[in-house]
Amino acid sequence: MPHVTIIETGLVSPKNRERHGTYPQMFEAMIAAGDPTVTFDTVSIPAGEELPEAGLLEAILITGSSAGVYDGFDWIAPLGDFVRTAHDAGVPMVGVCFGHQLIAQALGGVARKSEKGWGLGRHVYDVAPGNGIIDGAHIALAASHQDQVVTPPPGAKTILSSGFTEHAGLLYPGGTTLSVQPHPEFSVGYALACCEMAHSKGHAPDGLVTAAKASLAEPLEGTRLGGAITRFLTRSRG
Questions:
Q1: What is the pTM for the complete model shown?
Q2: Could you report the per-residue pLDDT of 22-35, keeping only the tens digit for each?
Q3: Rounded to an integer, what distance in angstroms lies between the CA atom of residue 203 and that of residue 38?
């Protein structure tokens, strides 16, 4: 059976965890919808758990976090080393949101807080034709971020983009590492909760939050990207 190691880099608040689950639980549900035979284990960085030997893993998924890749936390540099080891070993690896930014930084790109501010609600992304991972010309997904990848690593191909997020999806040299800025694992309910959290903390202006919440009345296509991620993580390593 395929096995995915989830690297938990951030925690859902207790109230939202009760309603929507942890980030690993969200990803487990997303992947199981595409392949119910997949098994999982989670390595929780907030709980102080040590990173495993990356090159020995079957597949890796790195979650989102409220942290920024530029923050001085003592776990960020070792996680960058872990990413480089997995990438060099050809271990299938996917990063989402913070995971997207961390992988890009670890492999030679630049991620930082964007002058465009908060990306919240339902965003529609252009899909690069013939990318081999995601079908279709466009895809609508939940977003919740201030940081962005502004310079992709050398050789990385941008496969998702929008006017707000130029490098929203990256496929890395070798074809075994993939990262995306939006959240295919989010339910509409949790995407709405993220809008509320950004507003309650005073980070996002009223008008932006109102528009973001309204946008979530339109369908999300997280299942389509989730299926692509599942296939990416569970295909053989050649």
A1: 0.97
A2: 999 999 999 999 99
A3: 38
Cβ neighbors of 7 (< 8 A, separation 6 or more) are 42, 43, 45, 51, 60, 61, 62, 63, 79, 82, 99
Dihedral of CA atoms 232, 114, 208, 125 in degrees, nearest 10, equals: -30
Q: Which residue has the tokens 């989670």?
A: 42
| Distance between first and last Cα of the chain | 16
Query: CA–CA separation, 170 vs 181, rounded Å?
Result: 9
Alpha helices in the chain (DSSP H): 14-20, 23-34, 76-89, 98-106, 188-200, 206-215, 222-234
Tokens of 156: 């990385």
3-state secondary structure of 3: strand
Q: Report whether 198 contacts 58 (CB < 8 A).
A: no
How much is the mean pLDDT over the chain? 96
pLDDT tens digits, 132-188: 999 999 999 999 999 999 999 999 999 999 999 999 999 999 999 999 999 999 999
| Cα-to-chain-centroid distance, residue 41 | 17
Residue corresponding to tokens 């009345």: 217
- According to the 3-state scheme, what is the secondary structure of 58-83? CCEEECCCCCCCCCCCCCHHHHHHHH
